[in-house]
């Protein structure tokens, strides 16, 4: 509005901005202002709980403003980018609200990311600082952050959440606690500004960073909270890695805060730990990916000694296609209402509604959350398909981005000239308005909700000294939905690389563990399509027919 937008950000067209404001979808409120308003209205209500902390709204608000003041002292300014790599713990909420209060932009990284992901993300975002924990699940994140800082010139500071008081800080790293200053004056933040950068799954080359504004994201959070019926009594358990869009805002932790409810955290999503957290915190709602939902359902169906799960009212499943058979079991096994969620960090989120008939809840991925969402289902020539036929889903609307951050090549591929986002998903539309997700166009593997780009993994495999050529395909897996199969042409057919050596090699490139191949299949020649491209479909068929090393 008043100041020029962040360079590299593609705004909505001016008439759309006026329209969304006039319809009060975009209200002009920022996330920082939202928290302060909740803290003023109900200071003593519990905002965040985890194993070690229990913060009221007043406390969370004060902590985030005090940290924002400390960040400013460190030289972090409005619109600066800051990598945030934290597991599910209370400090995550404190840190992101501190950055919101300051008008600086968190860049949401996952705890599983390693230097092969973080260095390009830091470089592409021009991050000036990184907030992480010293150690998590016995991995040395302080050392990882130091590697990233040394590789990326803009990155001046590393701030660590430290549990061990004897921690030794490397040069350029500090204890986050030292920046909890007395809250001071903070700059005005414009709700039309970018609030944070989210990551698009599985990209190659320059990472695809997703700029979301306070206005657009808060609208999606508000609509999500309405649809999922949140209120002050809601206790949302962050079970999935919290930096994902799903646990963040669908309705997730931000929805819980919007509604004046409580955010509870579990660093470990397995039934043993998560069920205990449900009993301890009185959790009413959580979101799961299908493989995790299956683990929970199987544990509950097995019976025996279990924590009291009676507080739990709604379980959401999303991030990857939930098999109908699993969807049918969730409600009865856990004593809850199931809600399917089909969304993307770029924007559009679809929900089944809590009062939908069972065939909708079990057999569809729901419908867009907003009447202002627009969808088109098209063939490969961008012509609309007959209703009910499979096609490529495109969307635009009040919370779907118009472009990735500072990435013209990706934008040319993923957005049409008139602002439609090509989701890459193949869907069909039922007469009742609900979508059924059929698969993905393009070369991706959705491994239990984590997206892996075939191209990215192939590039790593091609660096392997024993591999001449490699093709990654996703193959069906009863638990994960898809698993990662690497077809490789060995340089020397006498000594083909094994699964173990390939996995070790890939791990040493410094990439997230979920991208490791699950299987390696040696093949002499790749089957080709009519136009000389490797045919992934034929490779999948070979695998289904039991093809193994020759
Ligand atoms: C969520 O967001 P992302 O950005 O990690 O991944 C988006 C992609 C979608 O384009 C689709 O391919 C897949 O994940 N997906 C699903 C799905 N939910 C997401 N595929 C089939 N069925 C579903 N229910 O994954 C995300 C963001 C917000 C809310 C929920 C999920």
TrEMBL record:
Residues 37-405 form the AMP-dependent synthetase/ligase domain. Residues 456-533 form the AMP-binding enzyme C-terminal domain. Keywords: Ligase. GO terms for molecular function: ligase activity, forming carbon-sulfur bonds. It comes from the Bacteria. This is 2,3-dihydroxybenzoate-AMP ligase.
């Amino acid at each position: 509005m008043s100041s020029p937008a962040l360079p590299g950000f593609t705004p909505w067209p001016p008439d759309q901005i006026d329209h969304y404001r006039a319809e009060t979808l975009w209200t002009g409120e920022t996330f920082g202002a939202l928290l302060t308003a909740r803290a003023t209205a109900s200071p003593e209500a519990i905002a965040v709980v985890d194993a070690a902390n229990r913060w009221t709204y007043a406390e969370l608000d004060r902590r985030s403003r005090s940290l924002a003041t400390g960040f400013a002292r460190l030289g972090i300014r409005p619109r600066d980018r800051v990598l945030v790599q934290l597991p599910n713990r209370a400090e995550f909420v404190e840190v992101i609200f501190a950055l919101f209060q300051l008008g600086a932009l968190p860049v949401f990284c996952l705890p599983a990311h390693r230097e092969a992901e973080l260095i390009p993300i830091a470089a592409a975002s021009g991050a000036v600082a990184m907030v992480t924990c010293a150690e998590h699940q016995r991995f040395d994140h302080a050392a990882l952050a130091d590697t990233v800082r040394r590789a990326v010139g803009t990155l001046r500071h590393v701030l660590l959440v430290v549990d061990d008081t004897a921690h030794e800080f490397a040069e350029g790293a500090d204890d986050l606690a030292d920046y909890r200053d007395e809250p001071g004056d903070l700059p005005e933040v414009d709700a039309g500004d970018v609030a944070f950068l989210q990551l698009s799954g599985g990209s190659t080359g320059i990472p695809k960073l997703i700029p979301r504004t306070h206005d657009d994201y808060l609208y999606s959070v508000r609509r999500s909270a309405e649809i999922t019926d949140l209120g002050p009594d809601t206790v949302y358990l962050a079970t999935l890695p919290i930096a994902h869009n799903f646990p963040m805002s669908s309705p997730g932790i931000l929805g819980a805060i919007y509604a004046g409810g409580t955010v509870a955290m579990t660093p470990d999503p397995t039934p043993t730990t998560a069920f205990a957290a449900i009993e301890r915190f009185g959790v009413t709602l959580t979101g799961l990916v299908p493989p995790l939902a299956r683990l929970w359902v199987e544990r509950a169906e097995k019976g025996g000694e279990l924590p009291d799960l009676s507080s739990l009212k709604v379980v959401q499943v999303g991030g990857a296609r939930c098999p109908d058979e699993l969807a049918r079991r969730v409600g009865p096994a856990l004593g809850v209402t199931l809600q399917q969620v089909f969304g993307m960090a770029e924007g559009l989120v679809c929900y089944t509604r809590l009062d939908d008939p069972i065939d909708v809840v079990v057999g569809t991925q729901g419908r867009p959350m907003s009447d202002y969402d627009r969808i088109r289902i098209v063939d490969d020539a961008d012509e609309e398909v007959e209703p009910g036929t499979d096609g490529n889903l495109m969307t635009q609307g009040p919370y779907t981005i118009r472009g990735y951050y500072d990435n013209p090549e990706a934008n040319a591929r993923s957005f049409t000239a008139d602002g439609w986002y090509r989701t890459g998903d193949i869907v069909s539309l039922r007469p009742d308005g609900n979508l059924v997700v059929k698969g993905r166009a393009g070369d991706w593997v959705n491994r239990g909700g984590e997206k892996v780009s075939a191209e990215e993994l192939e590039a790593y495999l091609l660096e392997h000294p024993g591999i001449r050529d490699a093709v990654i395909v996703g193959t069906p897996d009863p638990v994960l939905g898809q698993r990662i199969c690497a077809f490789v042409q060995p340089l020397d057919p006498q000594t083909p690389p094994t699964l173990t050596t390939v996995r070790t090699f890939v791990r040493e490139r410094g990439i997230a563990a979920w991208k490791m191949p699950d299987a390696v299949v040696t093949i002499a020649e790749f089957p080709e399509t009519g136009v000389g491209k490797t045919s992934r479909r034929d490779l999948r068929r070979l695998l289904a027919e039991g093809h193994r090393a020759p």
